Each structure stands twice: as structure tokens, then as C-alpha cells.
Amino acid sequence: MDGDVTQTQELSQESKNTALLVWIGSIFFGFIPSLVVYLIKKDDAYVLDQSKEALNWSITACIGYVAGVVTSMILIGLLILPVVGICHLVFCIMGAVATSKGAPFRVPFALRLIK
Hints:
Layout: H1 13-29, H2 32-40, H3 45-71, H4 77-100
């Protein structure tokens, strides 16, 4: 009857905590925590979405680190490595803050390899 009523799903605290742990784990362990949660937690749409986003960002950061190491022979990599490291830290913290509130988070320039 009411066409204007939007259905809002209330996220459980467990979903928020799991997504938070994915982003925090990505700071220290790279793509491993997000990959594990992505493969295990298929039943929770929010956790699946955030683990996919963290996995995409971690893969993008790994590509940046590899590019920095390869180009460090011509000294440009010495500039690339700290920039990628700072971006990785900042975006993982932003993801952790957003998921602790239950908001979806998207990294602005991550490669969307996992859809």
C-alpha cells in the first residue's frame, strides 16, 4: 500500500565487527583476511560486499608495491613506495571507520577485479 516506504535492513553488530576486522586485518596482512572472509562469509551481503572491496583494494595496493619495487632501480620507486603505503593505511582506516558505523565504503581508485 505504501509505495514510499523504504525497507532498511538493520545490520547486526556481528556483521559490522567482521567487516571492521577485514579492513583492520588488511592493514597488517594485505589481501589474506579479506580473501578468507570473502570465501567463508557468503551468507551476509554486507560482509561479502566489504570483504570484496577490501580485497580489490589490497590487490590494487599490491600492484602499486610491485610497481614501486620494480621502478626503484631508477629511483622513482623510492617515491612510489611511501605514497602507496600511506594510501593503503589511510584507505584501510577509512574503511574501518565506515564499517564500524555500518556504512558501505568504496575506495575511490581501486581496481574492481573481483565483482
